[in-house]
Amino acid sequence: MTDALRARLPDTRGEAASFLDRLVRENRFTIAVVFPLVGAVALVGSAEGWVPDPLAFNPWFVLFGVLVMRSPLVVGVLPAVDRRALGWLGVLVAYTYAIELVGVATGWPYGGFEYTVSLGPMLGGVPLALPVFFIPLVVNAYLLCLLLLGPRAENGWLRLATVIAAVVAMDVVLDPGAVALGFWDFGGGAFFGVPLSNYAGWVLSATVAVITLDRAFAIDDLRVRLRDCEFMLDDMVSFVILWGGINIFYGNLVPAAVAAAFGVGLVRAERFDARLFVPWA
C-alpha cells in the first residue's frame, strides 16, 4: 500500500464514519432510487422469463443489490453501535435464524411455506443471508416510528404497539410481492396468496425485535443521529419503490396502497424530499 493511499484512509472511527456518511450522501439518488427501480425491473423480468439464465434471480446479484440499498441504514446506525448494541443485535440475529428454522420445519408461526428461489447459501432450509433481509425491516420501522411519534415515543407501550403495526404493515407489502415473484410459496392464502397466520407470526417476531432494539440502543442517541443524518431512512425509500412497484405490476392494489402510505410517512418525516434527488439542496 502506497503512502498516498494510506494517507487517504481514515485512521479513527470518527473519520471512518465521516467518510461513509459522505460516500452515501453523495450517492443517495443512485442508492435509494436507481437501485430499487433496476431491482424491480430485474426481479419482474426474472419471474416473467424476460431475463435469461444465469442472470434470472441470480442470488449474488440479489444480495449485492440488497446490501447497497441497506447501506444508508447501516451507515446511519453505525455511530450508535457500541458493545451493548452488538450483543443485543447478536441476540436478534440468533432469534431470526431460530424462528425461521422452526417455521420451515413445522409451519409455525408463519404458516407452512418453502423457499422456491435461491437466495444464496442455505442452512437447514434457511438462507444464511436472512438477517440482511429481515432485521433492517424492523430497524426501519423502529426509526420511522421514532420520528413520527416524536415525544410520545417515550411511552414504551405506545412505541411497542406502533412499531409492531408498522412491521406487520411492511410485511403486508413484502410477502404478497415476494409470492407473486415466486420467491417463496405458502401453498395459497387468503391475502394475495399469503395465509393470515403469517401476520400473527410477524406480530410475535416484531415484538421480540422491538424489545431487543429497545435494549440495544438509547432512544435519545438514535434521535440525535436521525436529526443529523438525512439519509438514515433511505432504505425504506428503496423498500417503497421496489416492493410498491412489484405489487403494482402484479395488480396487488392493497399492498401497493400500503407501500404508498409508507411513502406518505416518509414525506411527513421529511425523508422523501428534494435532498434525496438533489444532494446540494
What does this structure look like?
By secondary structure, the chain is mostly helical. It has one domain. Helices cover 69% and strands 3% of the residues. The protein has helices at 3-8, 13-25, 28-47, 59-77, 83-106, 130-149, 156-181, 197-216, 219-228, 234-249, 253-268, 274-277, and strands at 114-115, 122-123, 126-127, 184-185. The chain has a two-stranded antiparallel ribbon with strand order 1-4. A two-stranded antiparallel sheet has the order 2-3. Helix 5 (83-106) packs across helix 6, helix 6 crosses helix 7 and helix 7 crosses helix 8. The longest helix has 26 residues, at 156-181. The radius of gyration is 19 Å and the shape is globular. The protein starts with a helix and ends with a helix. The model has no long low-confidence stretch (mean pLDDT 91). GO terms for molecular function: lyase activity. Keywords: Lyase, Membrane, Transmembrane, Transmembrane helix. It is an enzyme of class 4 (lyase). This is Bisanhydrobacterioruberin hydratase. The chain crosses the membrane at residues 29-47, 59-78, 85-108, 128-149, 161-184, 199-218, 239-267.
Q: Taking all residues together, what is the mean pLDDT?
A: 91
- Tell me the number of strands: 4
Secondary-structure element series? HHHHHEEEHHEHHHHH
How would you sum up the major sheet?
Answer: 2 strands, antiparallel
The total domain count is: 1
Head-to-tail CA distance between termini: 37 Å
Helix % is: 55-70%
Number of helices: 12
Estimate the strand proportion.
under 5%
Rg to the nearest angstrom?
Answer: 19 Å
Principal-axes geometry comes out as globular
Strand order of the largest sheet: 1-4
Question: Structural class, from helix and strand content?
Answer: mainly alpha
Q: Could you list the spans in which at least 5 consecutive residues all have pLDDT below 50?
A: none
What is the chains' assembly state? Answer: single chain
Keywords: Lyase, Membrane, Transmembrane, Transmembrane helix
EC number: 4.2.1.161
GO molecular function, one term: lyase activity
Protein name: Bisanhydrobacterioruberin hydratase
